[in-house]
Request: fold
Amino acid sequence: MSEDPLNPLQQEVMDSLKIPDDWMPLPATVVTDVEAQLLDELADLSDWFTAEQPLRVSKHLLTTIHGCEAHHMAQRAEAFSWNINTVRGTMVHKAVELLLNWKSEQLPSHIVDAAITSVINNPRESASDFVASLSEPELAELRGAVVGSLTNFLECFPPLKPQWRPVVEHSARYAIHHDSIVFTARMDLVIGLPGRKVIIDLKTGRITATHRDDLRFYALLDTLRSRQPPRRLATYSLDAARLDTEDVSEGALQAAVRRTSHGVRAMAELVTKKREPLKRTGMQCKWCPLLDTCEEGAQFVRQLSGIDDDDL
Reply:
């Protein structure tokens, strides 16, 4: 039986992700070079932490440390709590994971219901208790949002063929200094064989500049873990049906090393109390737990709202 033809949006994504005829993998020396660069830049931190109490580094922690350091430390001290917005992305990823092995008709509402049930019934899912505690209206709101995102994925993203070896929520880990500094990542969607992988971040909101930095961190981690650089990085907005891509180059990996090492050094200095955190205003001020006591952040939020301090 012949496959259904791709619609224009699906074909556009396919054209962006396929391997060009003139593509060549990066030389093996790139792996050893970027690893040596990372180890060299963090060499003096070798005895700051231990395998029993390591410094853990993730995409989210790197993003926040390069924003406001005070906000970063406040988040470290505050237990993470789920809400409808944060759990939406998790539920979309679970639905896409089920979609890969869904044998019956691909009805988004059925797949999302199965995803919700799967998360609630799995105590290893960190969102399990939160989703189970939702009221009927809250659960309906979540279900509607996830159904919308999955519908967009089915309509705008080409069907994932088994020969592409798609993996959802792909975990990666790399450690240095005898496991005293540990880098971890969970990638939304990875397709392709080692050495020609495409790492894809699925976003339920708009694409921002930090998303490319996030993906470069993923590329660095996958390169160091598998000893083969991925081929391409892509951020896909489910709401806008927009794909932002970047080929993995030696320069992109070196940029990831610099950003990662700077972030790790800042984290290390702050958690060991070698210096005080710096304050940098930004959009994170709107939901920062320090907002009530941070004049810089409060002023920034007032300006966002169009309130002039002279009017107060």
